[in-house]
Amino acid sequence: MNRQSGFTLVELTLVASLLAMVMAGIATFLSAATTSIRLDDNVAVAMESLQRSAIRVSQVMRPCSISTYRVLSTAADVPLTAAAAGEWIEPVDGESRAAIQFRSATGALSLNAEQLTDPRGFRLEVETGETANGADDDNDGMVDEGRLMMNYDGIPVALASNLEAATFTLNGRLLTITLQSAARTRAGVMQRFVANEVLYLRNN
Amino acid sequence: MVELLTGMVIAVLLIGAALVGVTQHQSQRRVHGEQILAMSACRNMLETLRSVDMATLPTLEGQGFEVIGQNGEARGLTPLQGDADGMAGEIHVTPHARSQTSNPLYVVTARVRWRGATRGGNFAMQTLMGERR
Fold first, then answer.
1. Rounded-to-10 torsion of CA B111, B116, B121, B126
2. Which residue among A8, A49, A180, B90 is least crowded, i.e. fewest CB within 10 A of its CB?
3. What is the residue extent of each domain of chain B?
4. Which of B18, B21, B48 has the CB atom closest to A174's CB atom?
């Protein structure tokens, strides 16, 4: 009788099922690992995007003529420094504001700020579904989030989104731009982060 | 049996490699985050120094500065052990080779040394500062 060597069907079935279990375990682990990496990346990307936005704002503001720098008045400014809310008023040193307006040197003549652009400005616009009330109205984990709108020579441009706060603080000639945002971590908790840019306004 | 054991060893090695990769990725994220903080602090410090009077600039040699954290906290990076002033940042001001009494020119360096995700992180930015004519 000729006995051929090989595997029986039962052995093959057993091995296949064991292999399937092992591969399923590996696939589950890899899936969890990639999800973890992706969620970590979300936070890191959000932080880097915020930093880039702050740098971009400072680049736009660098040719700002400091004598034309104004802040938007609020109800708290009435009647001491403004007749009504919504006026463009002189800034107070060290006071943070969310909406500013300025004119920049055109750059047509080197080191000459006599030629100025039309008024430009920044302000935080709250997104649809949110109200500036200190609460998370749309249940996305972010409070009063909005877009940083830039008015560039009459053209509105959304410079950054998902910002919880955007403030501008002038101390002498040093302007501090502060942007705040948030992103959800692996644990499902909202992690908040801030980007600060300091800018020296040398144009009078 | 031999093939099965071989396969399982390979599977374990694959899982181990993936685990190491994930850990390294998260570690690199931390390192990168700290480097961004250091870079931002150096950039902001050099910008702040633009407002300093040229006559007082040399007196800032060796002065320390804090690195603001990612949440806006006052101390974002831990200084190295034995740091003299307990601040991760440091300013260095040295006269440039072409500096003249009538026209001073300085090499200004903002440096941050810290410990955190790495045993010792180091970042520096350098610029020239002189009187604008």
1. -20
2. A8
3. 2-130
4. B48
| DSSP-based three-state secondary structure for A125 | strand
Task: Determine how many CB atoms are found less than 10 A away from the CB of residue B16.
Answer: 10
What is the rounded (10 degree) CA torsion for A11, A17, A23, A27? Answer: 180
Tens of pLDDT along chain A (204 residues) come to 556 678 889 988 998 898 898 789 878 888 887 887 787 788 888 989 999 999 999 999 999 999 999 999 999 888 888 888 899 999 999 999 999 999 998 877 655 556 888 999 999 999 988 888 888 888 888 999 999 999 998 899 999 999 999 999 999 999 999 999 999 888 888 999 999 999 999 887
Tokens representing residue A68 in the block: 């034309």
Looking at chain B, the number of H-run helices and the number of E-run strands are 1, 4
Q: How far is B36 from chain A (nearest CA, A)?
A: 8
Q: Which residues contact A53 (CB under 8 A, 6 or more apart)?
A: A148, A159, A160, A163, A179, A195
Distance between CA atoms of residues A104 and A118, nearest Å: 8
CA distance to partner chain A, nearest, from residue B39 (Å): 11
